[in-house]
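Justification of computing resources. Each target in the renewal requires a structure prediction run like the one illustrated here; the chain below, 136 residues long, is used simply to show the kind of job we budget for.
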Amino acid sequence: MKNILKTAAAFVLFVIASNVKADPIVSPKAECKNNTCEKFRVGMYRVRDTMSMNLMMEKDKGEKVTIRLLDSKGKLLHEEFVAKYLTKLGRKINFEEMSDGVYTIEISDDYEKIVKNVYLSTKEVREVNRTLLGGN
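Resulting structure tokens:
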């Protein structure tokens, strides 16, 4: 009876150990220069007199690209996966409801990424107390 229990326990440990897999080594993504990666390109500009940014992207057909919006602490605010069949994409990112701070837009595939920083700040309006005196 003891041999059967030992054999059963050894078998259970073997099954558990064989199902444990090590996580693959994740290498950091290379950051592209001049808004151009090997398989995708990005253009981004502010829309005049608004709190919006236009993002345009061209990519190779069949490539998987992700667009992420992060706050200054690295918290994910928005994530979008671009369909493999698309080769061009245009998005308007509205920052109207966002508070002041630094935001990061990261466009990436499996190997490379383009990182854009957006700085939001409100110009403070203050009342100036001045007195005008006229003399003769």
